[in-house]
Amino acid sequence: MGKSFMPKIRIERELRRFQLEGLQWTVNHVYKNSDFYRKQFDEAGVKPKHIRSLKDISKLPFTTAKDLQEGYPFPLRSAPFEKIVRIHASSGTTGKRKVLCYTQKDINDWANMFARCYEMAGLTAKDRVQIAVGYGVWTAGVGFQLGVERLGAMAIPIGPGNIDMQCQFLEDFQSTVLCATASMVLLMGEEIEKRGLKGKIALKKVIMGSERSSDAMRTKMKELLGVDHVFDITGLTELYGPGTGIDCAHHEGIHFWADYYILEILNPETLQPVEPGETGEMVVTTLRKEASPLVRYRTRDLTRIIPKRCSCGSILPMHDRLLGRSDDMFIIRAVNVYPGQIDHILSNTKGVGSEYQIHLNRKEDGKDYMTIKVERLEGGDPSGDMALVNTIEEEIKKQILVSGKVEIVDYGSLPRSERKSKRVFDHREI
Ligand code: ZN
Prior knowledge:
The chain is α/β, with parallel strands linked by helices. The chain contains 10 helices and 19 strands.
């Protein structure tokens, strides 16, 4: 056995004590070294000495994407420039990019977290890891590579696209692990089938990040590539980058590194904690980050805690896959609904495609109604529509606790968009 990157902590009480120490270190550090955070804390009337227990985290002010954009080019910076060894930035689709600074210790911590991901997925120094995610100012490629090297496995850095080279490397270098986005993995799977390479490659595992994916997609990946496991890696640029959590071989949820950051799941409206197991917004506070620490950073990503210990026995807690963004939330009959929850149900229903629309109406009775239009699968038989409608309506009621009417429409009848499609159409008068 080589070096392990798992925490040495064995009991939950110890983990909580470790978190409190990290939280106290962080609030002291940012109060002392960041003008931004000191101002935030002063405005909220909170001093580092007020943080005496983990519950006191609720006294701390939130940090948002807007704070990062307004602080451009070096937002949240809490270390002097001579200690900063690198920056990364988000791709920045709207407004300014979010730029994050790293000290050497931050880079080391990130490498350890990433090596832990690979260890969690069962990789060893014998593995050969083909990295087909992007290299550049964003955190993806370099993070995947750092982790491979820290683990002691062999990195094969290619970047995305370049299908010919990908296939050649899979065959010539006998790569055992492929890291890519879900759509890239599917594309590779189809190519490998087309080229008849399945018997000539040695892939055992796929690690994918940064895109939502369904169980149906996973099954297809396993079939096409002949791999045993497909793992979901999580992370965001603000929080080091990818590598801050992954599922283990039991696939019961995504283990996250509670010894590096605190994850709160809050109701995005009230900003109060939801019940364990309920869906809410992920809010993260780092425990060791030096250059750009996060204090109650609102990620806008939605998930839920899986309120049980994983069968693997790890002390590291789990959250569910991401269920979309809190900005997209709507309220119907006093229930908060996230399009991602509907998406999740549809993507796990056989017979329907990936295009759908959610329509909200208020009828004469004064009540709100939700109708979901979803396309039948290409070439699907309309005689199965009734059964599909029943299945989906039941699942919605069971999982979201609200009723919805489902309409199956012909394949290709809903508009396509190159960009993110509009899903929710609210026709209610406000
Ligand atoms: Zn596990």
